[in-house]
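Lab notebook, design round three. We kept the backbone fixed and only want residue identities now. Task for the bench partner: fill in a sequence for the structure below.
Input structure tokens:
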């Protein structure tokens, strides 16, 4: 365990913005969390549980306590004829886990290759890409209650998983520290290739296998998205909005070619990146922040941008899309004021 005051978080967020935490505590074992919290009750004071720092934006310095579980370890807890159950500690790197499963022939999360962040954060965010969401393979989530300091376990149905969200991100914010996630993966995997262009990309690599699917996903992501190690970003900054038929029809009167995807009932998903691009923001720079020139969903730190600069750019983008298209964009990235 490590505890520091006035601690720089710049290296711990993929936007690479400078922000200091009043107090920072890193944990290497679950028992350290219980010991620390028992001796240092927060008593209503601000705290933030930090994962891989890949889906948040520090707008200013953080005047509370940042809790950073760096819990490591991966183990197979059950093996069946068709499935295995794999338990990974919350601090494990997400893409390292995907690489491990692909190397062993365990299917289920290969479409989620190269998504930055930690295993614990994958459950908080319900990460998804290329036709797959992590909720579909989660078996259980283990956590420590910040109130009782007891270990608790949640089934997927308890977690409130939705589009890029969960109870951990919304209703349960600040109530639990995720310690481990168990996944059910296939030993005879069926590839999910429905996302436009993915099947072709896999076939061009020569075979339909977990390894080639992972290669294809990585290649697509690298073509479209900036590497956080090179250009500060948090991936998709905005969620793709879901609207009713009436809203879609109104938008189609202005933009007949607007992409839309049925979601069941009378609901349709729109492409936020398409809307942002139509409003002229793709590749546009404001100070030291910009909208990425290959994917308008992504806001980037061009070097030295503050969190507030990136936030203000996001506000300009949201205002523009609302004024021109009548659509209110919702941020996927968590703002930390």
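Proposed sequence:
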């Amino acid at each position: 365990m490590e505890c520091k005051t006035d601690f720089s978080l710049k290296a711990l967020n993929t936007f690479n913005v400078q922000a200091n935490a009043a107090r920072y505590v890193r944990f290497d074992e679950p028992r350290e969390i219980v010991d620390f919290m028992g001796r240092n009750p927060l008593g209503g004071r601000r705290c933030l549980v930090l994962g891989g720092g890949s889906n948040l934006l520090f707008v200013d310095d953080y005047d509370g306590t940042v809790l950073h579980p760096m819990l490591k370890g991966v183990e197979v807890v059950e093996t069946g004829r068709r499935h295995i159950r794999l338990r990974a500690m919350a601090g494990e790197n997400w893409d390292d886990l995907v690489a491990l499963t692909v190397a062993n022939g365990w299917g289920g999360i290969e479409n989620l290759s190269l998504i930055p962040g930690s295993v614990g954060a994958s459950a908080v965010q319900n990460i998804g890409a290329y036709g797959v969401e992590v909720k579909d393979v989660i078996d259980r989530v283990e956590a420590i209650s910040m109130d009782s300091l007891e270990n608790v376990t949640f089934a997927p149905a308890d977690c409130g998983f939705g589009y890029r969200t969960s109870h951990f991100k919304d209703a349960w914010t600040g109530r639990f520290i995720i310690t481990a996630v168990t996944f059910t993966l296939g030993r005879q995997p069926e590839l999910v290739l429905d996302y436009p262009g993915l099947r072709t990309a896999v076939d061009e690599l020569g075979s339909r296998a977990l390894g080639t699917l992972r290669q294809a996903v990585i290649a697509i992501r690298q073509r479209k998205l900036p590497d956080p190690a090179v250009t500060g970003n948090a991936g998709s900054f905005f969620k793709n909005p879901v609207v009713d038929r009436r809203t879609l029809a109104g938008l189609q009167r202005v933009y007949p070619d607007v992409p839309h995807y049925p979601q069941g009932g009378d609901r349709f998903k729109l492409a936020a990146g398409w809307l942002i691009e139509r409003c002229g923001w793709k590749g546009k720079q404001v100070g030291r922040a910009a909208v990425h020139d290959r994917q308008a969903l992504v806001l980037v730190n061009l070097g030295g941008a503050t969190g507030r600069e990136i936030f203000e750019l996001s506000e300009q983008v949201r205002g523009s899309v609302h004024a021109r298209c009548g659509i209110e964009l919702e941020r996927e990235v968590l703002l930390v004021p």
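Keep this in mind before ordering anything: The chain is about 25% helix and 30% strand.
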